[in-house]
């Protein structure tokens, strides 16, 4: 048999699927894959359920139902002052995952360079490579995940077509500041390229920090493709409804990419999301307030157990350093052991870094002593997970040692 696509053959099953399967196998509390264990707002779910019964179940318009496109544009105006024409500057996709691929397809030709920021979401690199483009990786390092400006500037060059980045950022909870975004905007303008802005956690920002779309910065309106996800904004990750807002000069190609990927997205879910995006400000505020309380609950508990807990300013996730517990293995070993022995699942952070070979340099390997925990779970489950880890650590004789040091 002839070899199949070498890029796909070379990658494994996503870490989220692997760890969720391991969690199920071992009866572990799954703080790995980022999905809430509670349902989204009832009115949104009900709108989608009702929509199944009123005879609009055939293909919706290719770029999305008019009511959802209008709601996406109105939401962008309400929260960020972005003016977008719902008929020509908004495209609805089957999840942000599809949106990311569609935006990359819209602008990249084989041989173009695409700047990516590590730690990165697991679909970015394979898709850039599948399109024949060349990833240029720039690494953020814990514990502060600061943007290395000189390295970022050096990653841009005459072949750069786009940068793809994520704020608030999975897995590290970094929220890009205005100054950092201004620096990125300067590079995008200087190199006459595009920015694909993965903003799926736009409403999960904590401690009063603002979420700033790059698209709102001077000169960026025509260059940015801004991506949102109903999965995150309405705690309905299984729905897979995403939306892209971009200038009409880009939207035509983005729509053609979508046309060739999925063509349309389930109409009843679109109608539910349209109801969601028109909800009062209090809904969106309540979402971040409730997630911030969960971050604090899990973060404080992990700290008490002896983990090094890094700051999380946004997203569903908190990153922890497990070395203070006295665990000497790497993050994959830690997360497996935690799952099989403590019956709590986390995600190894190295999963968000490319192999060094991909970045074409001889730099150091990715940090391998961090585990990512998702806090988008019922409080009692977070408490139960902490209790399981306490019992496990106590049995290993490491709790007192860790706390004693701390
Ligand atoms: N980008 C990031 C950073 C994510 O964490 C996720 C999580 N699912 C996605 C994109 C994909 O979103 P969706 O489920 O809407 O495809
Ligand atoms: N975004 C989720 C996470 O980071 C997982 C999405 C997926 O499983 N593909 O956990």
How would you describe this protein?
The chain has helices at residues 6-10, 15-26, 42-51, 66-80, 95-107, 124-130, 149-155, 178-190, 230-233, 248-261, 267-277, 281-305, 331-342, 356-359, 379-395, 399-405; strands spanning 29-30, 90-93, 113-118, 134-139, 160-166, 194-198, 224-229, 242-246, 308-309, 317-321, 344-345, 347-348, 370-374. The chain is α/β, with parallel strands linked by helices and 406 residues long. It has two domains: 6-38 and 282-405, Aspartate Aminotransferase, domain 1 (Alpha-Beta Complex), CATH 3.90.1150; 42-280, Aspartate Aminotransferase, domain 2, CATH 3.40.640. The strands form three sheets. Strands 2-8-7-6-5-3-4 form a seven-stranded mixed beta sheet, sandwiched between helices. Helix 8 links the parallel strand 5 (160-166) and strand 6. The chain is globular. The chain binds 4'-deoxy-4'-aminopyridoxal-5'-phosphate and glutamine.
Q: Domain count, please report it.
A: 2
Secondary-structure-derived class: alpha/beta
How are the strands ordered across the major sheet?
2-8-7-6-5-3-4
Instruction: Please state the overall shape, judged from the principal axes of the Cα atoms.
Output: globular
Low-pLDDT stretches: none
Sheet with the most strands, sense and barrel status: 7 strands, mixed
Q: Count the beta strands.
A: 13
Ligand roster: 4'-deoxy-4'-aminopyridoxal-5'-phosphate, glutamine
Helical amount among residues, as a percent range? 40-55%
Rg (C-alpha, Å): 21 Å
Order of helices and strands: HHEHHEHEHEHEHEEHEHHHEEHEEHEHH
Termini separation comes to 58 Å
